[in-house]
Design a protein that fits this description.
single chain, 134 residues, alpha+beta, Trna Endonuclease, Chain: A, domain 1, three-stranded mixed β-sheet, two-stranded antiparallel ribbon, 4 helices, 5 strands
Amino acid sequence: MNAKKKGNAGENKFANWLQQNGIKAYRNSSSGANQWKSDIHNLLGINFEVKTVKKLNLLEAWKQSDGDSSLAKSIPMLAIHFDGMTENTWLMVLHSEDWIDLIKRVENAQPKLTSEKDRAIEQIINAVKLLEKQ
């Protein structure tokens, strides 16, 4: 199998794996042709760079993911499946700042509010909760 077909197949497998785990995602067949460079279209704000390889230059792969994510203003993340790994097993690589943010969200059990819209939704939810108590 040539590298392009192997890459496409890996992207499809990763998108299917995300779907099996309840995440809305699909392979972005035009990932290099638009501002959303992510190999996998998703609503998580993550730029997934999928690699299915025998060997990998991790720094070069990271630079690609980081560069693409800065164009799309999203979080860079590598999803790597090395030859010989069991099916549906992926190594995930993300920036230390994003990892810390993720851990803090889990510890606080509340999503980070990043926009005015998010804050407005949170205020509405709190208002509804108050009304339910009355």
